[in-house]
Design goal:
Number of helices: 18
CATH superfamily of the largest domain: von Willebrand factor, type A domain
Number of domains: 5
Strand content: 5-15%
Structural class: alpha/beta
Helix content: 40-55%
Number of strands: 13
Shape: elongated
Oligomer: single chain
CATH topology of the largest domain: Rossmann fold
Radius of gyration: 38 Å
Distance between the termini: 50 Å
Length: 493
């Protein structure tokens, strides 16, 4: 397009060359790619058809003089018939030359019933491709999960090993299309039908193997040795009960050490998605938005300079920062050691999470809880917090957080979660003032109180009563189900 419109050509290593007079430009194409209409409008378009039989025989005699005249005529006749079949890419003179030379190499003097057919030339590759796709479809119909990517890999593997040997095709499909050992018999059967012509008629019906279902009842006596059932025949499937649902509704303060260990393992699997916010970084948009000139011009280069495809940009998104403030005072002793597991799972499960411990002082625990080993992380956190199970000065701790980290940027636009029972020995006015400052800069403030689940609970503690007017959501935090509700509240927009 640059040559035709501006009479210039640009070489990246040298620069631009511009013609002094309008040049005569001749462009040839072998239809590997269709010539765009924008180019045709700027040219005198002339279609050069394939040569007739006599002309193609002359070309064969000049380019390949060792090909016999009778063979050259037969090849030209068959090539002409193939071109009249309406193929998307009919064989050209180059394919005719290759075919003729291949026939000479195998000792064929002319085309007869025993000579290799045209299906052995380059034009017959689509027939093999269709058969490979048909074979993948037969596997899907037989119940095997065969994604599109596996079909593509199967075609590449057959192209590497060749389709002339049965074992090569078998193992190419076995490696790329079968993903489970139990699918091998089905694959063998379908392969026999598709590639070997085997029929499934007259085969005896397959008798399903017996399967025994064993139920593990809760509360059963494992010490009984009498009346033991005999070993069943066939496959055995054991269905065992799980007390995860029971533990998820049990209060942390009432759990034994074994139950807490199971709950800690369940918390380690929790992942917090988090809310998102718009950022200054632009991302690619599908339909509308700000015009992306760079991608639009790059796409126009593929369409001969015509901007047929317009690319757009829109503001991107990034997760909101999550700030967790955990009360580690003596009144939270029965819950703090479990809730810190939740804090650790939040830090290792997503990016941009900050954690602090609130007691008589404020302690940042983000670095200590960043390791994925929970025991090592809790050991480092215990060594960093000097006032664990001590007194509580929530108002002073929140003031330090706002002055040093929160108002300066950490809490701006973030989701702040305070995990505390609200008991505070400080001045309630300080608590109210600092919570008001925090709510002004944070996107959302969530207060998690384990005592909220108690029957007849009312926020009568001075610290809790002072903080509640500035809280967006007031949740429970006494069991695993309540922490699931907290995770949903963090994710909620």
């Amino acid at each position: 397009m640059e040559i035709l419109s501006e009479y210039a050509v640009t070489v990246p290593e040298v620069g631009e060359f511009r013609a002094a007079v309008p040049p005569v430009v001749v462009i040839t194409s072998n239809r590997t790619r269709d010539v765009h209409d924008a180019l045709k409008r700027r040219c005198l378009y002339h279609w050069v058809a394939h040569p007739d039989v006599e002309r193609e025989v002359e070309i064969l005699r000049v380019r390949a003089p060792h090909v016999p005249l009778a063979l050259a005529r037969d090849v030209a006749l068959v090539a002409g018939e193939l071109r009249d079949m309406g193929l998307y890419k009919p064989p050209g003179v180059a394919e005719t030359l290759d075919w003729a030379e291949a026939l000479v190499l195998i000792g064929a003097d002319d085309l007869d019933a025993e000579a290799p057919g045209m299906e052995q030339s380059a034009t017959a590759e689509r027939t093999l491709d269709r058969h490979l796709v048909r074979f993948a479809g037969a596997l899907r119909a037989a119940g095997l999960p065969v994604p599109l990517g596996s079909t593509i890999e199967f075609g590449r593997a057959v192209a590497e090993v060749g389709a002339d040997r049965r074992d090569a095709v078998y193992w190419a499909g076995r490696v790329t299309l079968v993903h489970r050992p139990e699918d091998i018999p089905v694959y063998d059967e379908v392969f026999g039908q598709q590639w070997l012509g085997a029929l499934d008629r007259g085969r005896p019906a397959t008798v399903p193997a017996p399967v025994t279902l064993l139920l593990d009842e809760p509360g059963g006596d494992d010490d009984r040795e009498d009346d033991e059932p005999e070993a069943p025949d066939g496959d055995v499937v054991s269905v065992r009960w799980s007390r995860t649902e029971v533990l998820s509704a049990k209060d942390f303060a009432e759990c034994s050490d074994e139950e807490l260990a199971e709950l800690h393992d369940l918390m380690g699997r929790m992942r917090l998605a988090g809310d998102v916010r718009r950022c200054r970084r632009q991302r690619r948009a599908r339909r509308s938005g700000r015009l992306d000139l760079r991608r639009t011009v790059r796409a126009a280069l593929r369409t001969e300079g015509e901007p047929l495809i317009r690319e757009y940009l829109e503001p991107g998104e990034r997760p909101r920062r999550l700030v967790l403030l955990l009360d580690v005072s003596g009144s939270m002793e029965s819950y703090a050691r479990t809730l810190i597991r939740f804090v650790h799972a939040a830090i290792v499960g997503r990016r941009d999470v900050e954690a602090f411990a609130l007691g008589t002082r404020l302690t940042r625990l983000t670095r200590e809880l960043s390791t994925r080993d929970p025991d090592a992380a809790l050991g480092r956190a215990a060594g960093a917090v000097a006032d664990w199970s001590g007194g509580t000065r929530l108002g002073d701790g929140l003031r330090q957080f706002n002055d040093v980290w929160g108002v300066r940027g950490m809490a701006r636009g973030a989701v702040v979660v305070v995990l505390s029972d609200g008991w505070d020995r400080g001045d309630p006015a300080v608590m109210a003032e600092q919570m008001q400052r925090l709510s002004r800069v944070a996107h959302r403030v969530v207060w998690v109180n384990p005592l909220k689940a108690a029957p007849g609970y009312a926020p009568l503690a001075q610290g809790m009563a002072a903080a509640l007017p500035h809280v967006d959501e007031f949740l429970e935090g006494h069991n695993l189900d309540s922490l699931g509700a907290l995770a949903a509240a963090i994710t909620r927009r």
